[in-house]
Amino acid sequence: MAENDDSSRGPLSRGGVAPQPLFAVAAVLLGSFLANFDSRLTTIGLPDLRGAFSLSFDEGAWLSTAGIGSQIFIAPAVAWLATVFGLRRVLGIPSLVYAAVSLIIPFVHDYPTLLALSVVHGLLLGTFVPATLMIVFRNLPIRWWLPAISIYSIRVGFALDTSSSLVGFYVDHLGWQWLYWQSVLIAPLMGLMVYWGTPNEPVNRALLRDADWGGMLLLGAGVSMIYAGLDQGNRLDWLGSGTVMALIIAGAVLVAGFLVNESLVRQPWAHVNVLFSRNIGLGLVLILLYTLTSLSNASLVPNFLATIALLRPEQSGLLLLTYGALPMFVLVPLSIWLLRHFDTRTVVVVGFACFAAANLWGTQLSHDWAREDFAGIVLLQAIGQSLTLLPLIITLLSNSDPSRATSFAAYIQIMRLGGAEIGVALMGTWLRVREQIHSFYLGQNLGVGDVDVVRMLKQLADHFAAHGAGSAQARAVGTLAGLVQREANVLAYIDGFWLCFWVAMAALGVVALVTRAPPGPFTPAPFGFARMLLRRCGVPLT
């Protein structure tokens, strides 16, 4: 890694160096991890929250959509807001308000108030992650950039692998309220770290006068409405729901209005020209493909264990914690070392290959698989998570134009939040549709009067006869129907793994189209024989 001059700054690097940059690193850790943990905890713990707040299934679904949709609304604009108002104001103050809202929510019993507070909660949470890269580039020496970015990137996989265990611990030992109250302890500490670790910057009044408020509102509202429509689509039957269609169409119209706005205003906030760079466009596509192929870890494994193996989150969470989260303490330093000495494309290829292998392994599952049978799959996915997202972020940063940093950051946040959440919604629909298809075909093979069916029903009825002859036949039919549904679900999950496998293979094809990044602070430094060979050939090493 070229580190000859710490005074040379890269993308998103305006501003002075803070006197205590280690506190900025701590803020990066707390802010990025808190955002992902909070989102995952409320998603996994939603059944417990519905019971605690006495919510119906529909009310609970809208509660989740409101929280994440508001994050998507604010996140694209955070980089620009931090540039104008300074990191202390954009990150420090919201952390204190966020702690107060997190403290209040468990005491609320009125649903409209709860929904409103969830929207505020999501808006505040949406400021945390986008500002972390600003802290890294504005306040840390170059030699610290890669380790800090690795913390930023690995939070996704770490939160996925530990959130199930944490939800189980809170609900069983401390109370469901701690799904919110953990933020009461962490967020103020994060605000203190921001105060100590970032410089005190004046408001940039020149940028404020030329603010493209219309563009920010149009893009944020449009993308969040599209997300809401997709998130509710699986529950409300997509095209059969006027609510879903209204959200998606209205969101698309607002996004189109944003594109028109950016071409007309004098100072566009997030002009689409930033996406015209080949490597930037391909990098954003790869991030989207990463979010989709990593769904095998975020959705397929824990949901299979819950649906087929009937395990609670804390039981399946032990698997994800042991084989997914803990290995990352070794894999992250390995990823940093690889990126210091090898091209990012090489590391990305290894990462996506691990995802492909894990998903291909998952296509062999059956209803007999227990928690321990997924250990190898989860471990391969942990390697994939450690060796994919970090080099993708480095690739984007290495090819970005510092003069368009806020535009670039806006699209990164849309891809980060929107891609992940839309992927989860679409995977849910894929599993539901595939389960219905497999149920239909399996049912066709269970004809009335079929010899095998009659024999199976007789065996089941004889088994249940000891508990009541009158209900034995009905229980036998119900049990056989349950077996059909179980196998249909297993086949649907196999299809889910196949889908993730082909997404990983498509990602490997896209990686082949990415060209070498221009020299910069993230340029790898060859070592050993390769270094000697390059020197003899007269190739510069920095």
Automatic annotation (TrEMBL):
Molecular function terms, GO-annotated: transmembrane transporter activity
A single GO cellular-component term on record: membrane
Pfam family, one: MFS_1
TM regions (residue ranges): 21-41, 61-83, 90-108, 114-137, 180-198, 210-230, 242-260, 280-300, 320-339, 346-362, 374-396, 490-514
Record-annotated Major facilitator superfamily (MFS) profile domain positions: 24-542
Keyword Membrane listed: yes
Membrane topology annotation: Multi-pass membrane protein
Compartment annotation: Membrane
UniProt keyword terms in alphabetical order: Membrane, Transmembrane, Transmembrane helix, Transport
Organism superkingdom: Bacteria
Name used for this protein in its record: MFS transporter
